[in-house]
Amino acid sequence: ADRRRGAGRPAFRHYREVEYMLTRLILAAAVAVLAGCGSMSLRSATATATLAPTKGNQASGTVNFTQKGDKVLVAARVTGLKPGLHGFHVHEKGNCTAPDAASAGAHFNPGAGPHGAPTAAARHAGDLGNLQADATGTALYNAEVTGISLGANADSIIGRAVIVHANADDLTTQPTGNAGARVACGLISKSADKWF
Ligand code: CU
Ligand code: ZN
Predict the structure, then answer these.
(1) Which partner from 88, 127, 157, 178 sits 20 to 30 angstroms from 143, CA to CA?
(2) In whole angstroms, what is the distance from residue 134 CA to residue 84 CA?
């Protein structure tokens, strides 16, 4: 007897079943890869704040924010400062309209922590420490900060404000770090999502 004919499964039909299975496997793999990319490395959320001087001051600059996993990389360049340290914070309200920027409210503090250093375990999420201005009044800042995000949760800094102060943040005085007047303020705006 012919065993192939006895099985009742023409060769072409078997081939189509294998092809169907392979197609499903490839589609499943593609979906898994796309899902992974979407939530991890390929999508990079960024935001920017343009700092403008408050009344009677000259400080201005740019702050760039990039989400890196559960941290946010903060990179700033500020000019027009008095040489030395200047308190640098995210404040809770995205409102720089008051001449002294008091409209930006207090330090962003979604976790109800005490004021502290950006590396402290307990702190305001908006505590970024200090900018250090050189003899020309220019400050560069680069830090990876926890407790804030560029997302949509309570820790999001989108729509809030960045403030630069006249004096050093001592990282201990409650609740402000005794950093003095607000010399520059900028609204934090999300940039269009980039895929790379
Ligand atoms: Cu501040
Ligand atoms: Zn604080």
Answers:
(1) 178
(2) 7
